[in-house]
Every structure is written in structure tokens, then in C-alpha cells.
Amino acid sequence: MGSNLYSIGLSGLQSSNARINTTGQNTSNVDTEGYSRQRTDTTSSPVGGVVLRDTARLVDNFVSKQVRTDTSTHSYYDTYHSMISTSDNLLAEDSISLNTYLNKSFDALQTVNNDPTSSSLRQLAHSSLTNLVQQYHVLSGVVSDQEGLVDAQLSSSLKDVNAITSKISSLNKQILRQEGLSRSPANELRDQQELLAKDLSEYLDINAQFNDEGLMTIQLANGQPLVMDQNPTEIKVRPNQLQPKKIDLVVSFGDYEVALKTQGLGGSVGGLVDYRSEFSVYADRTLGQHAIALADAMNTQNKKGIDGNGQAGKNLFSLGEVKVYSSLENINKAKDISVKVSDGEAAKITKETFELTKTDDNRFSIKRIDEKGNSTEQNIIFDPVSLTKDSDGYVKIDELGIDIRIDNMSAIDDNDVFRFTPTEGAAAGLSLFAKNGEALALSAPVSVSTGSSNLSDARISLTSVTNTDPETSAFSSDGPLYPSAPHQIYFTSPSSYVVRDATGVEIASVSNVTQYTKLLEQAGLSNEAGFDVSVSSKPQKGDEFSISTDNIGVSDNFNGLALADLQNKSLVAGEDTLMKSFSGFISYVGSKTAEVEGHADASEIVLNESLARRDRLSAVSLDEEAVNLLKYQQSYSASAQVVTAARTTFETLLGIMR
């Protein structure tokens, strides 16, 4: 009985001592990050006493998984918000608002129209356009600077990710070795591993699992592995030859690499990738579309007038080269393909990317790809050989508003792929082609006059100028109207008139006239003439009106008013004015920022709740540990008394035997 009592007391001492050690370990790690409270379990022995089982971590794998998920979600929105809020603050700043500079430019055009002969006013208008171009560069720089910041942060984040996965893999080896040599679990090592998994979830949305040996494996939310037992992987950035602005990630397994799906990565890495692929690309292309609309409209209108030097108007702005990309093996062929925006077709320009491929010997296919990388609408098939080329060798793709030139079709194979985005970088590539204010073509290219012997008070006026291209209008390349063009309108009665050319030959007649506007359109000549005229009131028989380019003066502001009125035209995608379009863009940025901020705030609340749930189970409570310590001390003392009683009993028995 003494021997059994001694064993019972001794097991109690061992149990109490082990629990005191566990309590001491918990207490000493009260502030250790990632430490999980431990508990030593025991069971009653069939032969008396207590048997120590093991010292386990108090964790709930489901709660830990939820903490990692919520950490990833909050980190995603927090990172996205930090990037887009910076863009929002910069783009919405009044001092750099594009609308401020647009207002100043069009106000300057209105002012110079008051005195087209003033060189100083012309120069002020030219300076305002220079400042406008610089502002496009500033805004484009804001976007590109943010892209550079994303690239730097992404590079740093991936270094951290790869370091963490390497440490998790290393801990798997240590855990396997330690638990193989001892029956006790490697609690501290597993705590470190759990903490690393939580740290990793700040960068990516991960799924941590344990294999049959109890070793941690890490997969991304889409199932792609990052840590396989003791073999870590490495995430790397790889350039995308077809879309250099796109971020491509690969998972390296050492001997080979697998492309990583960038959708739904979660965490700060996902936030950076999504900001770059969603907002940054959208912002760059939106500004580019805006710049193209401005340049094309101003150029088209300026070429419809006469500049301060008495010459036909030329382009005011120039756009940068549309870059064509291809895979590395075909990059040398990309130089044979040139793309530009068709003159006067900016309203058709979208923010899409276009993929050009060769379908057979002569035909090519163009596929539309939106900002998210999805194909849209049906492919456009065209044959460059059968289409009419302009003087520079370009063919026009009417549906897209672009011109394409393919210099060496025989060098392009059927499987070759080329991509280009007209709006990409267009804001940064915008420049002012006009050298000075005299390049502003404020005057009309044609003059009209009322016959001095006319019987009525009707006066002729120039209604519109739609085309001054020598190849498709009445305007010749050296200035005067072609002899075969309309030169005179003669009324044969108050309700009928004829149109004559320079030699007096009748080229059209109109009867039953009730409206005296757009006379050339009524005669079916306005399209080929490129202009139209009206008379102010009902003419009399014998009234004649002349059309020529002889009396053009720099004091005229007909085309200047049309230039200034572009401010009110729906130029961007044929839907919005320049100012409305930019205001819409700023509103989008503000709305997106507010949306992401709301998600960031909500996800922080959810994360804090998950952390609180984990702490209720796994965090160390000093009050609870103090109670446990007192209890185990008393248990130890009581067990010691049992041992003492057993020894006394045993000594008494020995004394009786003597």
C-alpha cells in the first residue's frame, strides 16, 4: 500500500510540476507575438495516480483560417486604398485640374477671335495651348509615377513572400526532426509557423493545410501551391511582351515555372496588381482618349481655315507613335506595322487593345480586347491589298477609326500576333505642333460676296466649311477653288436658282425653293464642294452671289469661332465634351476611392473581431494563469504530502518488521 501511495504521490508531483512549467511558459510569453497558450493534459491511471499525456497548443484551426482570410481581405483593400487615394488627391487637385487649363485655352481662343490680326493675342492663345499640353503630361506623369511605385512595392513584397515561404518550409524540416526525436509536439515551432502563415496572408490570400505528417502546406486561394512539405516555391515577375504594362507573375518550382493567375490574389500583392491592371490602365487610357479627341478635333478644324500667314491651316497638335508589340520571337516584325488615328475619326477611338493576326496570304484579323483582357464583339477581317492606300501607304479601318500600314506582309506568318492600344500613353505623347500663334487658322478658306446690282436686300454668308482636302473638295492645293467648283449662284426667280462654275457653265439647278439656307446642299453639291452658303432673305430674279478665295483677310474669325466652339462639342467617344469627360473621370476616381475605403474600414472591423475570437482561445490571460499557478502549487504541495505520508507509512512498516 505504501509503495502504491508513493507512486500516486510521485505521479501527482510530476503532473503538478509539468503544469507549473506550462503555466510559467504561458506567463513568460504573455507578450510574445503569435504565441498560443499551452495546456498540459493528464489522465487517470488504472493502477492509481495520474499519467501525463502531452502539452498542446490551444488553437482552433477554423478560427486561425478565418484570421488569415480576414487579414488578406483587409490588406488587399488597405493597399488598394492607399494607392488610389493618392491618385484621387492628386488628380482632383484644382491647381492641376485639366478643366482649368481647357477653360484657359478656349477663353484665349475666344479672346483672339475679337481681334484675329493681333499677334500678341495669337501668341497668348498659343501659350495657353502649350500649357494645356504640359498639363496632359503632368497628369500622365501622376499615373506613371504611381505605376512605378506599384512596381517597387510589388518587387519588395514578393521578396518578403518568398522569404516567408522559405522559412515555413525550413520550419517543416525542424518540426519533422524535433517531433521525430521526441514524443512532445514542437509547439513553439508550430507557433512560429502559424505566425508566418498569418504574415503571408497579408500579402496573398492563402489556404494553409497540414499533411499526414502534420507539416504545413500553403496554397493560393486558386489552388496553386506555394509550400509543398519541405519544398518552397518562388514567385517572380515576368515581362509581358504583348502588353508591357500588364503584370505577369510566375511560380518557380526550380526546374520549371508555371504562370500564376493574377485574378483574386488577395492581400497587398493582389491589391497592387489589381490597382495596376484596373485603375492605372483605365486612367492612362482615359487620359489618352481625351488627348486624342482634343488633338484630332483641333487639327481637323484648323485645317479648314487660313492661318495668320495667309496659308491653309495645318495640324496644331501631334500625337505620339502608337506602339505595336509582339512576342519576343516576332519583335523584329513589329517594326513593319504602323498604326495611327484616322483624321477626323477620334470619336471612334475606344480604350480597347487590338490584336492583329494574319489569317491567310492577304487577309488580316483584328480582335478587340477590353481593359480587363476580355474579347469583345466580332473580329474585323480586312485585306490591305484590296483597300485604298493614302499617300503614306496607310489603309483605313473604318470601324475602329484607325489607319494601318503593313510594309512587308510576306514576312508575317499566320501564327504571328501583334497588339496595340491607341490610347495607351497618348496623353504623354501629345505635343504642340504649331510653332507660334500665327499657325492658328482663324479665317475662313473661302469668301462670298453679294452682287452690287442685286434688286433684293438678301445677303450671302458662309454657312459651313466641312472639308478642305484638295483630293476630295473644291479647294485646290495652291489655294484657289477648282474652276469646276461652285463659283456663282444666280437666281432665275425668287424660288429657283442655278449654280455656275468659274467659266459660267451651269453645274446644278434648283427650283421650288422655300428655304434659303444651305443652298449648295439643296443643289447636291455641298459634299464635293466642302462648304455651304446661305442667303439672309428672299432674293429677286437676277440676283447673283459670288464665291471665291480672292478676298480672304486675316481679320476674319469664321474658323476661329468654330475652333472655340469645340469646347461645346461631344468629342470624346462622340458622347461627351472635353470638360464633361474629364469631370466624369474625376468623379469615377472619387467614387472608386470611396468604395474601396468603405471596404477597407469594414474589413478592418471584421479582422479585429476574428483576432478577438482567436485571443479568447489562444491568448495568455495573466489572471487565469495566476489562478492556475496557485492551484498547481497547492496540488504540488499536496502531492508532496502524499509522498511524505507514503514514506512515513513505509518506515513504520519497516519498524514493525524489525
Automatic annotation (TrEMBL):
BP GO annotations: bacterial-type flagellum assembly
Keywords: Bacterial flagellum, Cell projection, Cilium, Flagellum, Secreted
Identification of the protein by name: Flagellar hook-associated protein 1
Molecular functions (GO terms): structural molecule activity
UniProt family annotation: Belongs to the flagella basal body rod proteins family.
Source organism per UniProt: Marinomonas alcarazii
InterPro entries: Flg_bb/hook_C_dom, FlgK, FlgK_helical
Pfam family, one: FlgK_D1
Cellular component terms per the entry's GO annotation: bacterial-type flagellum hook; extracellular region
Main location: other
Keyword GTP-binding: no
All residue ranges annotated as the Flagellar hook-associated protein FlgK helical domain in the record: 85-317
Biased composition (Polar residues): 19-33
Subcellular location: Bacterial flagellum; Secreted
Region (Disordered): 19-48
Domain Flagellar basal-body/hook protein C-terminal stretches: 618-654
